[in-house]
């Protein structure tokens, strides 16, 4: 059997990582990989995480399993962080997962388990793993317009025109904040229009929130998710702790399902438990334990929020610097969108040929669709990138 397997297509971002490693140029710049880096090019362990780990090492007495849904304290802390008081906690079922990707996968497994004929509507563009998992599970898939290639903002009219084709029972996947790969986000009034539309047609929202705190602030970045959960009778929310807690390798995520009623929650919770059991049995706990400790301890939380704000402010400053440098070099304000976008990513608007020239002639690596990771820059490399963009005529 194994000799009959066919090779799977290589992940473009992973290929880009290998190409970057093999490039001997000392002045190369990696804007492809989707992880946060500080000015020294390092993905740091946050101070609050180190403190919590030291405390956990002293106090932990067992490595036994927690439960099929993970530790309830983690679910409670994350629910409060993301949803606040927007919905009754008694309606929210939750299960810990291996990372945000695991939460997305389990959400789609839940849809397939309950409504296999549903169509999953994805933004165009979206994170490449979204359509990959949908296809892998054999679910129906459609796209709605999202990004305006001229303004580099949200094509909201096109988005709503496409969502007019969504049917009752379909699922619309939305990015909670810091849209990947574009960095362009819905305004709160636009979130309200989307919510009203989904309620009117009987479709279910699914929100992937992987960058809370990387945009404008913890509460601000959760505002759209909270509005959707408050307005819609049912909502699926896939959350990641990789970025805002810097624990990528700990694979810490959570799937929340806002049930239509309190009475429905036990059945929903039982289904989440069942799906975890079929997939990986018990979820990992180390990262989840650290997150719980930080969110429930006043001093640790204050430390974490201060460092997260520093990371967020740093990315905003890099955006502003890059927009300014590009204005100086091109004599145009057409790159002003970079300062308006939020999160780690922006889509530059370069052609694949221009992206290749940036790599070949300037040692600048970004994804072929011109998604660039702002966190891969620092104050020194921003002018280098701006000059390269001007040189290739983006």
Any overview of this molecule?
The chain has helices at residues 12-22, 47-59, 72-83, 99-114, 129-136, 156-163, 188-201, 218-231, 265-279, 286-296, 298-330, 337-340, 352-362, 381-392, and strands at 29-30, 92-98, 119-124, 140-145, 171-175, 204-209, 235-240, 252-258, 345-347, 364-365, 371-373. It has 394 residues and is α/β, with parallel strands linked by helices. The protein has two domains: 11-45 and 301-392, Aspartate Aminotransferase, domain 1 (Alpha-Beta Complex), CATH 3.90.1150.10; 65-296, Type I PLP-dependent aspartate aminotransferase-like (Major domain) (Aspartate Aminotransferase, domain 2, 3-Layer(aba) Sandwich), CATH 3.40.640.10. The protein has a seven-stranded mixed beta sheet with strand order 2-8-7-6-5-3-4, with helices on both faces. Helix 2 (47-59) runs antiparallel to helix 11, helix 10 packs across helix 11 and helix 11 (298-330) runs parallel beside helix 14. The mean pLDDT is 96.
Count of spatially separate domains: 2
**Reading side by side through the largest sheet, how are the strands ordered?**
2-8-7-6-5-3-4
Which CATH class of the largest domain is shown?
A: Alpha Beta
**Number of DSSP strand runs:** 11
Radius of gyration: 21 Å
């Amino acid at each position: 059997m194994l000799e009959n397997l066919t090779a799977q297509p290589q992940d473009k971002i992973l290929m880009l990582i290998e190409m970057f490693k093999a490039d001997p140029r000392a002045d190369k710049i990696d804007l492809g990989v989707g992880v946060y880096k500080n000015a020294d090019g390092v993905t740091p362990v946050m101070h609050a995480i180190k403190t919590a780990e030291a405390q956990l090492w002293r106090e932990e007495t067992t490595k036994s399993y927690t439960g099929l849904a993970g530790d309830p304290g983690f679910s409670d802390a994350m629910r409060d962080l993301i949803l606040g008081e927007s919905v009754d906690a008694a309606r929210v079922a939750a299960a810990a997962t291996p990372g945000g990707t695991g939460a997305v996968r389990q959400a789609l497994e839940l849809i397939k388990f309950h409504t296999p004929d549903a169509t999953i509507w994805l933004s165009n563009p979206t994170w490449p793993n979204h359509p990959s998992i949908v296809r892998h599970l054999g679910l129906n898939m459609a796209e709605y317009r999202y990004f305006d290639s001229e303004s580099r903002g949200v094509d909201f009219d096109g988005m709503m025109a496409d969502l007019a084709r969504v049917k009752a029972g379909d699922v619309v996947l939305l990015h909670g904040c810091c849209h990947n790969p574009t960095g362009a986000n819905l305004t709160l009034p636009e979130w309200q229009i989307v919510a009203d539309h989904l309620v009117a047609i009987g479709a279910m929202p699914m929100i992937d929130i992987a960058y809370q705190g990387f945009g404008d602030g913890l509460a601000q970045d959760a505002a759209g998710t909270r509005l959707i959960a408050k307005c819609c009778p049912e909502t699926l929310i896939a959350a990641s702790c990789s970025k805002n807690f810097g624990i990528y390798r700990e694979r810490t995520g959570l799937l929340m399902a806002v049930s239509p009623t309190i009475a429905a929650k036990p059945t929903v919770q039982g289904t989440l438990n069942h799906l975890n059991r079929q997939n990986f049995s018990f979820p990992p706990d180390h990262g989840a334990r650290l997150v719980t400790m930080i969110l429930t301890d006043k001093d640790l939380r204050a430390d974490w929020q201060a460092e997260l704000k520093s990371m967020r402010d740093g990315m905003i400053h890099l955006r502003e610097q890059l927009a300014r440098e590009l204005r100086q070099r091109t004599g145009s304000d057409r790159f002003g969108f970079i300062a308006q976008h939020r999160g780690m990513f922006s889509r530059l608007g370069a052609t694949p040929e221009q992206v290749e020239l940036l790599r070949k002639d300037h040692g600048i690596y970004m994804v072929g669709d011109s998604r660039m990771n702002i966190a891969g820059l620092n104050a020194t490399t921003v002018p280098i990138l701006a000059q390269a963009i001007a040189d290739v005529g983006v």
